[in-house]
Structures are given as C-alpha cells and as structure tokens.
Amino acid sequence: MGKDDAITELRSAVLEYDSDAAVRAAKAAIKQKIDPMIMVDKALVPAINEVGDKFEKMEIFLPDLMLAADAVKASMALILPLMAKDYQTSKATVVVATVQGDVHEIGKNIIASMLMARGFNVIDMGVDVKTTLLIDEAKKSRAKIICASALMSSTMGSQKDIIDYATALGDRKRYAILVGGGPTSREWADEIKADGWGKDANGAIKLADKFSGRR
Amino acid sequence: MVHILDVMEKALEGKPISENDYQLKLFAAKANEKVREHGIKFDRNEVIPSDNSLADDIYRAAVELLVEVGAYCTDTSRILSYSEEEIRGALRNAPQEIWLGEGKERKRLAPRKIEDKSPPWCFLGAGGGACSSDRSFTTLVEGYAEIPEINAITTPALTRVGGMRIRPASPLELLGAMRNAVYAREACNRVGRPGLPLMNSLSTAESDIALAAALHPRYGMRASDGFLICCMDPMKVDFNRLNKVTVVLSMGAPIGMCFGPLMGGYSGGPESTAVSNVAHHLMGVLTYQSSWLLPFPLHLRYVSSSSREMLWIISVTGQAISRNTDLISLNLNYTSAGPTTPMCLFETSASVTAAVVSGLSIESVGVASNKEEDRTTPVEPRISAEVAHAVAGMKRSDANGMVNELLSKYESKLANPPLGKTLFECWDPERRRPSPEYQKVIRKFKKDMAKIGVDLRPEL
Q1: Are the C-beta atoms of B66 and B283 separated by less than 8 Å?
Q2: Nearest CA-CA partner of B424 in B388, B355, B389, B377
Q3: CA B64, B59, B43 angle in degrees (round to 5)?
Q4: Residue B213 has pLDDT above 60, yes or no
Q5: Domains delineated in chain A
Q6: Quick check: B21 pLDDT over 70?
Q7: Considering A66, A210, B47, B404, which has the largest number of Cβ atoms within 10 A of its Cβ?
Q8: Tens of pLDDT, residues A130-177
C-alpha cells in the first residue's frame, strides 16, 4: 500500500463511520512514516468536514455524525502523540455538558460531535453534571470554553449557577461560557452574563471559533 | 403479563451495555436494518399514503426492532429485553377504552380506525409549553376549557414560583407542581366545567418527588385525570420515571407514555423514525405500563411536526397502530410558527389532518416549537379541534391532496418561521377572545380552508 492509499483509507474510514477501520488505517499510515500533520490535514479534517456538512443538510443523521467523530477520536489517539507540541495545542479545549438536573443529551451530543469535527479538543462530561465538577474539569483541562446545554425551563437556572460559581472562584475570565438549549434565548444569556448563546449547533460552533483564541 | 416488578427485574438483570453503544450501535443500526429488510420507503408526494401494506410493514419492522433491541435503563446500564410473546400478551391486555373526567365531562377515550367518522379525542392546550406567571397559566387554561370540542386539558408548565425560576427536584418544583394542579382545576371551575380531566398531569412535575407531592388529595388531582410520563429518546427509562409509574399505578390511574423520536436524531431518517415511533408504542405498554400512548415525533432542525416528512411519519404511525393493534394513541403536534400568523394555523391543520384520518386522536398543540414562554394562546388548540372534527371520516387520498395544498402555503418558511405574538399581545383575558388583529387572521384562514374543501365554524 502506497502513502496515498493509506491516506485514502483513513479518510474513507471516517466517511464510513468505522472506528476500527480508522485505527487500522492510522496504524498503517504511522508504519509508513507518513507525516502526522498530513494524516490530519489530508484525511481526518476533510473527512469530518464532509460529514459535518452532510449532517447540516440532513443527508445523514446524528448516529452517523457521532460515529464519524468517534472514528476521528480513535485515530487521533494514535496520531496526536507523534505531532509537534505546538500543533497539539493549537485548538482550544472545550468542556461540554448538559447541566445539573437535566438528562437530555441529544443537543449536547450534536455540539460535542460538531466541535470535534471542527478540530476542537472536546471533553464531553455527559448529562446532569454538577456545577462544581464542571468547573473543576474546565480548570484541570485548561479549557478555554465551556458549553452548557439545558433543555428544560426548570434547568436553565443551572446555567446561571455555572457562571456564578466561576465568578465566585475568581475564574470567570478564564473561560468563555456559552449556553444553549430549547428554552434558552439571547435575552437569557445576557441576563445571566454568559459570553454567548448558541441558537443551534452552527451558532455554537461560530461562537467557539470566536472565543477559541481569546483567553 | 409484564408487571412493574417484572420491569424492575429486567432493569436489574438485563444485559449490560453502555448508553452510547445502545443508542448508536444497537438501536440506530437495527432501526436502519429493519427499514432495509422491509423495503420501507418515504414518498414525498404521498404524505398521507393509502397503502395498507406499507403500514403493516412498518408495524412488523417495529415489533422486530423492539424484540432485537429492547428498552434501555440508564440507571443500571442494562437492556430490558422483551419477547414477541410478551409483546402480544401486553397488546391483548391493553385497555380498549378509558373513561376520563367527572360528571358531565366524563367521556370515553377509545382507539380509532383509519378514515374513522367518529370525532377524535381532543386533548387541547399548551402541550406543557412554558408559561411565565400564575396569571398567564390561568388565562390559558380558562381559554382551553371553553373550547367546545375539548375532551381533556393539556396545561402549560409553570417556570416560576414566587418570582424565582423553578429548579428541578427542589421545593420550587414541588410548589410549582402543586400550583399547577390547583390553578388548572380552579380555571375549569371558573368556566363551569369542573369535571374536565387534566390529562398531562402534571407538566410542571418533571421529577418523581414533585409528582408524588402534588398528588396529595388537597390539590385536587383525580384518578380520572390522565398521567403522562415522558420516555427518553430512544426507548430509554430511568428510576425517576419508573418511580412515577409506580406512584400512578398505586392510584389506579391510566398512564400515558409520551415519546418524541427526533427525525434526524438517533431514529435517523423518516422511514426509521416511523418504525421507531411505532416501536415506542409497544415499549410504552410494557415498560411504562401505559394504557394510552402519546407520540410527538419532531424534526431535529425545525423542532416541529408539520414538514412533509413529519406528516408522513404521523400518518404511517397512525395507520400501523390502528390496523394492527387496539392501542389508544394520540398524536401531539408542534408548529414552527407562532400566534397571529396564518402559517401556524396551516401547520396545525396539516398535522391534525394527518393524525385524524390515519386513526389517531390528537393532543394539540405545541406552538412555535414550545420554546418560548407565553408564546401560545387558546386560539391554536381551538383551531386544531375544529379541523380535527371537520376532517374525521375523510378519505386518506383526499386528505393527501388537502395536506399538500396546506404544505404549499408554509413549507418554504419552515427554516425561518414567523414567531408571531405572545399571549397578552393577542388575547384579551377579560373578553376571553383573540385581539381584533388575530380575529382577522382567523377569518382569512377559515376562508382559505373553505377553498380547499374544509368548512369550519363561522368565526364571530
């Protein structure tokens, strides 16, 4: 297998939502001493961008998006240690969670997968995440951005808790705190002094891009 | 028969699997596999199909899906498996009628057939939409209770108590749930219909403890109300929800499981979402011990049920359930547009028509995706009910033509819908009627409906 074939296989594995194949292709590419930057720039990024675009147009659906993101994550676990340190840290770390008291996960999963697809280092903490644990994780992982999702009007208040807690710790300026979810609005984000409100996944990605280099 | 203790045994002893693997590698993969195996195809031009074999294929695929993937308990990370025999037994034992309400409002809720001439059960109101104050809550419920076709009320959900935003499983949520019960009953009393059942009891009670607390007799809830327990997508349950099931069973009240498979989400495209929607009915009778079912499939992007794909899903789900079971099923529809917009009224007319001619009753309506506080009025559910009664008995082929006409009026605006006005901007609570501006919109809407062959009550 030539170097071009290895890159093609890695790209195809993501487009076929196949983590096992992505790991095999990444191992083959590493064995052939292909520059890890080329693996990322020529295979993983174009493939996951293509998947993200198809999801936006609803040509594919959430399971495909999440499986493709898993394939990227699995291959990146092999590729990342081989990359230069400055490249490794060039994308911001984002902590993503559904807030305390809320078990709805679909919106949060879409955001996490699309952020990953756009090259962010995503830490997905899951659903019903305690405010204190969320901020602890953001601090530990040196995250620049926190995305907090709430799907119920009764759990929106937990978004305010996150901002108040970070402020009380004196850490408010360390993170851009972005909020979103069905019942939330720009007015709500302004009221609780969030850094931004994602109307939908695309809006969240644009905000993450905006804030990724700032803090 | 599968009882609640059997459900718990399955939740404690079933096969362990991660939530991610269940929903991505098992549920989503199998739903797609079933669509392929049964050759199920969505036809954009036939949103209300007349092909009985399509409905039967979807039903068969749904039974196989449930047998092969089961339900999933997020608290134990285990699969609750069901055999085909258990499914058949649950369907044999499911009630074929339920009596809800008190006094002269006591009515029989029963399954309907495709193209059934009998009017659907009209479960009307806000569909649990958020409302900001006690005043808007009671204004809305009084308005709903005065709708002539109403059989049961679906209340809004309070978002604040004493000026504080409600927090889950906190005293604020418990107090909000108690107020939900008291205010809704009082609103029905005020308009002289004290016996109307509150069928989405209790929308403010998201947690098990809030529901249990608000069921104290002093707050006026009755076993003749309906008790909705919401399933997590896809086919998931947790102890919070099973606690609610246990509490409502102990009252001897009829449980309704509501479930909203997202087209574009774990359920995938229109075909697999239809299969998922039907499978959820069967899962609800078993896991949630439901006597009635309340599907509300939604479009992932539009968060409404009026697009071409969603109307097809509603229709084929109704036909599959109606032809193959005696289950009682009511479709809840969401619009993208808001009050005072013609689009909102056309959207709800299309969704209600798809449900009623396909053998379903209705819950209506979540307005403007049910996202914003107070962006709903008593007009939208009243229009839904008028349309539901007008189209009962309509042939599926005629309904398909009518719904295509309706789609042509709003389909292009679904991605960027007009949100219209909020409750007190377009509803006069003293005169109990819409604003002159909204009345004008309604009159024009009714003229447009007459042009496509649906005659509604003359608007005052």
Answers
A1: yes
A2: B377
A3: 120
A4: yes
A5: 3-87 (1.10.1240.10), 91-212 (3.40.50.280)
A6: yes
A7: B47
A8: 999 999 999 999 999 999 999 888 899 999 999 999 999 999 999 999
- The angle, 0 to 180 degrees and rounded to 10, between the axes of the packed helices B134-145 and B171-190 is 40
CA distances B236 to B69, B212, B229, B351, Å, are 11, 21, 12, 26
By Cβ distance, the residue of A58, A154, A155 closest to B301 is A58
User: What are the tokens at B269?
Assistant: 């495209």
Structure tokens at B13: 């002893």
pLDDT of residue A90: 59
Burial classification of residue A85, based on how many CB atoms lie within 10 Å of its CB (0-12 exposed, 13-18 middle, 19 or more buried): exposed
Q: How many other C-beta atoms lie within 10 A of the C-beta of residue B55? A: 26
Task: Specify if B227 maps to a domain.
Answer: yes
**Which chain A residues in 113-172 lie under 8 Å from chain B, judged by CB atoms?**
152-158
Q: Burial-class residue A91 by CB neighbours within 10 Å (0-12, 13-18, 19+).
A: middle
Candidate from A61, A155, A182 with C-beta closest to B269: A61
Residue A152 to residue B168, Cβ atoms within 8 A: yes
Domain that holds residue B314: 98-451
Contact B28 A63 (CB under 8 A): yes
pLDDT recorded at residue A80 = 82
The ipTM, to two decimals, is 0.90
Write out residues in chain A with pLDDT < 70, as ranges: 1, 85-90, 214-215
Write out the two tokens for B410: 């709003």
Q: Give the model confidence (pLDDT) of B392-405 as tens digits.
A: 999 999 999 999 99
- Nearest Cβ partner of A58 from B157, B264, B303? B264
- Check A103 against B232: CB less than 8 A apart: yes
Query: What is the model's pLDDT at position A2?
Result: 76
Measured between alpha carbons, how far is B69 from A102 in angstroms, rounded to an integer?
25
* Cα distances (Å, whole numbers) of residue B347 to B47, B368, B405: 14, 10, 11
Residues of B in contact with A152 (CB under 8 A): 168, 206
In whole angstroms, give the CA distance from residue B152 to residue B107. 9
Instruction: Say which range, A54-58, B249-253, B335-339, has the weakest mean pLDDT.
Output: A54-58
B350 within domain boundaries: yes
What CATH number is given to the structural domain containing B385?
A: 3.20.20.460
> Would residue B460 count as lying in a domain?
no
CA distance to partner chain A, nearest, from residue B262 (Å): 9
Contact between chains at A62 and B166 (C-beta distance less than 8 A) = no
Distance from CA of B104 to the nearest CA of A (A): 35
Looking at the structure of chain B, the number of domains it has is 1
Nearest CA in chain B to A153: B159
Give how far the C-alpha of residue A204 lies from the chain's centroid of Cα atoms, to the nearest Å.
10
Residue B375 has a pLDDT of: 97
Residues 6+ apart with CB under 8 A from A5: none
Q: Which residues of B touch A154 (CB under 8 A)?
A: 159, 165-168, 173, 206
- Domain membership of residue B17 (yes or no) is no
Residue B441's nearest CA partner among B413, B455, B421, B414 is: B421
First vs last C-alpha separation in chain B = 52
Q: Which residues pair with B258 in a beta bridge?
A: B230, B294
